[in-house]
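Here comes just one.
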Amino acid sequence: MMMATWRMMPAVVAMLISAGAQDVHAAERPGQTQTRDTRMGEHPSLTRLVLDVSELTRFYTHVADDGMRILVGIPSVDWEANRHRLKPFGLIARFDFMRRGLKRGLLVIHAKAPARVEHQFTLGPDPAEHRGNRLVLDLAPRDLPGKAAMPKRKG
């Protein structure tokens, strides 16, 4: 009986380590997306905002005040970690953060001129470019006729 117990020990230890790792991950990420970095780029007729996030999630946008404010909401996101790095660029004059509950908030983009959301999408990890999960938002001048073309990928 003692031999059988010792033979099973590696399997039991592996199960405990696995369970402990799952508990650690749950404590690190209590159903919350983290913003890790932001960057912006200018393309013909577009200002692109890229948010590097810990995981892909649904996000929504709403254009308010005749295009002068764009609201970006991601359920259970903590914008606090990165909002101080958001600087004016292209169509973007400034950013505000509105807290909604304990760890949720809304990113408010203030435009320099009336704008519209031209494209919004998510991108998964790209190991070749050393990029993780991303949320992408393309803003265009509201009075731009037609639909602005999607920027081409470099390379």
User: Anything to note?
Assistant: The chain has one helix and nine strands.
